[in-house]
Amino acid sequence: MKSSATMPTAEAQRYMVQLCKHFGHKVPATYEGHEGRITFEMGEASMRASPETLMIVSQAADVEGLDRLEKVMESHLKRFAFREPAMAVDWRRGA
Known about the structure:
Structural class: alpha+beta
């Protein structure tokens, strides 16, 4: 199962690094340049930062894992992006 979300923000690089560093204390997480990856028990989140957007692609073996992964990534992103309260994370599911 796979889903993705793209959020407009001028702080994409900063949020991606924050997410990787935060989760890196508990699970494998890496970032280099404009790409990051976090591997959880329930699945994996890949991120790409551009000057204007942050894209997250989440992958999990089943719907329950994908639901959980989306919620974890979204809640932490919103916590780090508290200065952007209007930021919406609109997950789009794909094959």
